[in-house]
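Input chain follows. Return structure tokens only.
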Amino acid sequence: MTTAIKESVGDGVAIEGHVASGFEPVAQQFMENFRSRGELGGAVCVTVDGATKVDLWGGVADGKSGRAWDRDTVSTVFSCTKGATALCAHVLASRGQLDIDAPVTEVWPEFAQQGKERVTTRMMLDHSSAVPALRDAVKPDGPYDWTYMTERLAAEVPFWEPGTRNGYHGFTFGWTVGEMVRRVSGKSLGTFFRDEIATPLGLDFWIGLPEEIEPRVAPIVPYVYAASEAKTPFMTALAKEPKSIPSLFYFNNGRWRTGGANSREGHAAEIGAANGITNARGLAGMYAPLANGGALGGVTLVDTTTLARMAEVSMATHFDATLYIPTRFALGFMKSMDNRKRSIAATLWGENCDSAILGPQAFGHVGAGGSLGFADPACGLSFGYTMSKMGPGLLLNARGQSLVDATYRALGYRSKDAGVWLR
């Protein structure tokens, strides 16, 4: 049985949608996000075995105009885009067109510079290809110029011996992996994603937003850190180490860093690491086939062999060279990361900051500020959460993790004490 929801959460803010029997706690946590956790506007969607169990949205899409967040509101999901970009590569691999373990130079010969000759697509996907940033200044419109960015990355000196460690390729991932998609498929990354994934699945999800969709976009509201909060190793590097990988990743991004997520040029570009625009339904819809053997509703994304490879941990570390926290990555996707006792952020903003605790077989991606999409093939689960008001920390915060926790409990899972959700 499904229950329609339309409920006020205070100050004229309403939540709408529907929830299936047994998933009411997810709705309760979504409402609590507005009542006590500072949510402005957002959406959550959960599917199990391809059936929608939760589809909720609400709040304010635009604080300046007061426009409500409605069913079709979309927003920038930052690094959740990496999951979409990685999926494009895996679709090509499943079709036999891209060899994940072959040298990148077989497809992209120009990348064989400065000691990067042995880099594989696997290394690009698991953040070990050693180009997590660019050292020299990126021109202001650089992120909106695909050829410029790929040429810069091909010529970049690796920050370590490729394949020997990992450091989150927070901005460069979109061009390293995206260029492989472009060269193999003959289509731009955004076009391939639209034609082969979003359109067949009926998703409101774009890497390169059409102008006619602009009125539906909720502007991003950044989290403003007080000076007293700049205590994490990552933030210390930003403040004091301008040549460090964290600083180069965060600051050396041309105009994207200073408002790109809320600009037309930032929306229109194809930035496969950061500028995907969708809603919770779009994220959950993209991961739904991956939670169900690689195919759903007559649409096949990947075969079972590729799907199994996608979910396996490929690279993990106690100290990510970019984020300065422990991280675990599959091929283009995040795995469960439990940093509750290993991150200073957890002591500053609550235990859920700098963590993303999922099931053991789950894989997906967090976006800056706390958005999330993932699949868990063990229970047929796909999940999406999007919002416009960013939270603190590098991974999830209390808003997103509370929704994940309620979802797993609704499925009969009992504990996340092991760092993953267990039945």
